[in-house]
Amino acid sequence: MKQKSQKYGTCFKELRQLAGFKYKDLESIISKNGIVRFENGTSNISFDRLAELLKFMGYTLSDFMYLSGESRVDEVYGEKFHIIRYQQGYRDDFFIPVGVNPVRLKLFESGKILLPYDVIDAMLGLMHIPEQDFSYIINGSKDDYFVHYINWLDRIQLREEFAEAEMIQNEAHKYANNQEIKVKILEENFETLNYNNEWLELHSQERLTRQYTDYRVLELTAKACHQILNDEEVTEIGDFLFGIELWLEYSLGILALNAWQLPYSLVYAIISDINLHEKEYKGKLIYRRRIVQTAGRCAMTLISKGETQKASDLLSMVHHYAEALDTHVQGLYRFAWAYLDYRNGKIEGQKEMLRVIALFDFLEVPISRDFAQKYYNRHVLNLEES
Q1: Can you list the alpha helix ranges (DSSP code H) found in 160-230?
Q2: Which of 286, 287, 310, 349 could disulfide-link 342, Cβ–Cβ 3.0 to 4.6 Å?
């Protein structure tokens, strides 16, 4: 028991000193002698009194339990959060509105405490970082709900399995409607709370709105795999993509799947932004694949419309991502350039398209081969499958 008292006292002293509080600053709650004895491990204080002291200094009882070792900390949350915050350029006092001062933030990012998940989500919301992107960073290569569906839709689009795309569209529509209902209920029941709680309540509303947006975007992306989107729907997708600040697998997947129907100006602007951080994206296969898919698909739509210069500009922007040893990425990139050459009247372009199809066949990549063959049949031979 004495050992635990000493541990608690040492932990409290560390928190007090980190926050810059002197004994006299806390005398309205407990005497100087009481704090000294507690920090030396010679006496205890009640948890109610401890919680009051911690709150006064800007901490929570949970912070104390983590720092004292009573609760286990998963350091990866804070470490990955620090990377995102540093990349995005946010100061350490940016999260005070949600109750996280610079000292708490430092403890969290150094892996000494774990913040409540609703607070982490609120902090992500302040930085406009989608929750699923943070989840993907935490889980490494593990798929979350949305990434799973994006990868599924990618295969569906290549195989033209329209019934499955429609099924995902209907499921996402159902969830989007459920989230919209929750937002309306929250708006009707909203009551004024104190500063931090009011912000978190408003954030809860924002979070539900983001969840609605995620499902709505998934719904439209699934629809785009088997139908032409109308102008309002393309604008919805564009607004979502334009608001992305950290491009990860989910958002890049949405971008790539919709690239066939997105305006050139939007795709050009996004790839220009991504290229500012080329090193971060070039080192990961799925990022390279999605970026090249985006440029290639948008370019092929432009080529079909006769806008060959714009298509050439897009393909030139992503050449450094296509240099990597990835059959699908290299093949798609070569195929798009070959189609551009063909539409510019170069007979070698048609031959190159056939060589890419043969390469996919030789390397036993049937999905890519069949996609390229169907595209060749439609846009070069002017054939339509029955």
Answers
A1: 162-189, 195-224
A2: 349
